[in-house]
Here is the input.
Amino acid sequence: MRYCRQCINKPSFDYMLVPKSGKPEKMPSARKSFLDGWRILVTRPESQAGELVSALQACGAETALLPMMQIKPVTDQADADNATAKLIKSQVLDLDQYQHVIFISTNAVNYGVAWIERYWPQLPVGICWYAIGAATAAALHSHGIQTEMHTQIMAGSMNSEALLSLPALQQLSGSKALIFRGCGGRETLAQTLRERGAQADYCEVYQRQPAIHPRGILKSFIANRGDRLLMSSVTSGETLENLLDTARKDKVYEQLLELPLLLPGKRVAQLAREHGFKRVLVAENAGVEAFLKELDRFNQIS
Here is the structure.
């Protein structure tokens, strides 16, 4: 576990939203140092936690990073005899047969684009590219892929339902859509696209695995809780389940349920309440700005 106390002497964190031009625009900043005195445990995968941790520290919080999930490629590109690799290769080689290509997350971009770049030195034309969330859109832009404008400027919920509200995805008879995602997950997106007339296929390029930690590590963090301890960034049901399993092993399950829990979206919030969490903070989406906004609101009423 990493504990870092850092009150950064610089302007408060600005969340960067990337529009179609690829040039970042500043969103309103959270108040500097409004998290002084708070200790926050971040449970995002290590490769995705840096921006949030830096933002929390810049606002005065003490942070600890304890990832609950590991993100790994579903297969090795070099393993040509692997059945999964053959399937992904086949889907990517047929990329020009699709009119809509959707990336669910930054992980989908990182692993999916690696496959695309291997077989398409130049991207096929005639494809509409979509990203769920500003961070995913920014990741695509870093590879030179421009997404549909509306998927980048959603300031509210960054989820499948928001994507499905786009005008371009309403009448899909005779079209094909390829969805880059991790193994498993919700079926809402593909199911709805099929109901609207599209052939929707999944290209699953990464997998989520529970992170294993030494026994007692969560107990140590909670034992030193002080008065202002908060759990942050439980972004999925899988993350929540592994956090609860870790608490059971460390015999701090009941203590965990007493802590404020910050997470994005009503669906995961409902799961947390069903498990018995008493103080559930619901950010509008998984973006850093949304998390800071909800923390600011909670801090003012606590």
